Amino acid sequence: MDRVDVAIVGAGQAGISVAAKLRRQGFEGRVMLLGEEEAAPYQRPPLSKKYLTREFDLERLFLRPRIFFEENRIELCTGQKCIEVDPERKILELRNSRVEYQNLVLAVGSAPRRLPENIGGSKEGVFVLRDIADADSIAKEFSPGRNLLVVGGGYIGLEVASSAKSKGLKVTVIEMAERILQRVAAPETSLRMRDLHVAKGVEIKEGIGVEFLGGEKRVSEVALTDGSSHPVDIVVAGIGILPRDELAGAGGLKIDNGIWTNSRGQTSVESIWAAGDCASFPWKGKRIRLESVQNAIDQAEMVAVNIAGDEICYDPTPWFWSDQYDAKLQIAGLCTGYDNVVARKGASEDSFSHWYFKGDQLLAVDAVNDSRAYMVGKRLLESGETADKNAISDSKSNLKLLLKR
Fold first, then answer.
1. What's the pTM?
2. Distance between CA atoms of 294 and 4, rounded to whole angstroms?
3. b vs e for 132-162, b when ≥16 Cβ sit within 10 Å of the residue's Cβ?
4. Using an 8 Å Cβ cutoff, are 154 and 181 in contact?
5. Can you give the chain as a three-state secondary structure string?
6. Which of 66, 140, 304, 390 has a C-alpha 20 to 30 A away from that of 230?
7. pLDDT digits over 337-350, tens only?
8. Could you read off the pLDDT of 273-285 as tens digits, one per residue?
């Protein structure tokens, strides 16, 4: 049986960040990084963008070259599925072997929600997008003139729509909620992004869902909840993700919207830690789970520092981004609980920002093609400061002056 000081389950952004940070901290113990996929650790954001359109090749996805793992004595084991955790004995059961650990990090990420099988969700031509294999399968279907139905108007759905449109497909996006991006953005941002897609030739249907996907083995038609039917060649579901907490739950760890952790990244079992999409943690009096690359990196590095012997707590300023056509949407903070939004025009016609407040307290900023607004908003949020609404709404004012109070 292999015995390691730190076993990391999940070789994505969070997993590799734990391993790399441990070595930068001077940790000398044995570190094993276990990935379920055969591929070396890679970045996921390009999967719905430049990798899907084949502007990136596979090599550009990889986070580190193979030699990095050798030089840093990180034992990278790909194609290894973990099937059971025994917290009492500190044993990890793999498909064909066992690993005994001193510390275990669960960086297992999330899984995409799929369309139900009883409405045709398992037919050929129906996809989700989470890994390289998914992106490769979808990319093979991209041919000019084909009909793509994107189910879900969130970031992934809209990014896929943008990529498909650039390849000449006919694209329809449907969203069950009243508007696209409803869960993460104000109506003002939703409308601007909607207008962008419509201007590019994408048809967007809001307040509508899938009734049934027709066809023999392969999808060929969709019946929608508004009573209409349409021919389709390809369907991509972007209807959210679920934290992969089943391994932790089966091992008796506490589950609360993902794997429960304290502010140090520790689960309900002292020797087990969690980071990334799969982990929920306390933040500003509530418990949240963040689905972003930066959270995966920052939370993972915090876990590594604590395993190495420090005691630090995680207090992030959440930030996200989404690239759609030539628009770069950058978000700082969480807009949950906002009661008013201040709009600001950017320096060009296609740039703007929306600033979310609860009363007079700044909560978040959405910025499209306006990196200055994004950076100023992020720095204000990091400092705990708010911002003058009149100064924000005046597009001629110098935003940087808000940082000199």
1. 0.94
2. 27
3. bebbeebbebbeeebbbbbbbbbbbbbbbbb
4. yes
5. CEEEEEEEECCCHHHHHHHHHHHHCCCCCCEEEECCCCCCCECCHHHHCCCCCCCCCHHHHECCCHHHHHHCCEEEECCCCEEEEECCCCEEEECCCEEEEEEEEECCCEEECCCCHHHCCCCECEECCCCHHHHHHHHHHCCCCCEEEEECCCHHHHHHHHHHHHCCCEEEEEECCCCCCCCCCCHHHHHHHHHHHHHCCCEEEECCCEEEEECCCECCEEEECCCCEEECCEEEECCCEEECCHHHHHCCCCECCCEECCCCCECCCCCEEECCCCEEEEECCEEECCCCHHHHHHHHHHHHHHHCCCCCCCCCCCEEEEEECCEEEEEEECCCCCCEEEEEECCCCCCEEEEEEECCEEEEEEEECCHHHHHHHHHHHHHCCCCCHHHHHCCCCCHHHHHHC
6. 140
7. 999 999 999 989 89
8. 999 999 999 999 9
